[in-house]
Amino acid sequence: GAVASQLESLLLKPQGPDTAFVGTPALAEALCKQIEFYFSDGNLRSDKTLLRYTGDDGTGEIPFEVLANAPRVKKLCPDIRFIQEALSASKVLCVSAQGARRVAALPALNID
Predict the structure, then answer these.
(1) What is d(CA 67, CA 76) in angstroms, rounded to the nearest whole number?
(2) 65 and 33 in contact (C-beta within 8 Å)?
(3) Of 10, 45, 67, 69, which sits most exposed with the smallest number of CB within 10 A?
(4) Cβ(73)–Cβ(31) below 8 Å
(5) Which one, of 64, 43, 41, 60, lies nearest residue 52 by Cα?
(6) What is the pLDDT tens value at each position of the chain, 112 positions in all?
(7) Predicted structure pTM score
(8) What is 6-49 written as a DSSP string?
């Protein structure tokens, strides 16, 4: 449908069997926004799977393999190298060769 054709337009097809995946700037932006959402204060606190990696303060690293297998990321682009490249533009995430983590810890919960 419309979503499939929209996703299709974000991808640039490789030209040969040995050609690496090439994505558009729009795809990189969409990936970055989606993964930043996963790391957001509201989402991360309620995502027990991701919290296993990040710890309670939210600053632990989540491996690219885990991020690439998240359903919405997988639908956009399962290519780990492209995901890593897309996240390098993030202002809220720190990217390493193995994964990504939040720059800032989760804010403390005020429980009164």
Answers:
(1) 12
(2) no
(3) 69
(4) yes
(5) 60
(6) 665 555 555 555 444 445 567 789 999 999 999 999 999 999 999 999 999 999 999 999 999 999 999 999 999 998 999 999 999 999 999 999 999 999 999 998 876 6
(7) 0.79
(8) HHHHHEE--SSTTPPPEE-HHHHHHHHHHHHHHTSHHHHHH-HH
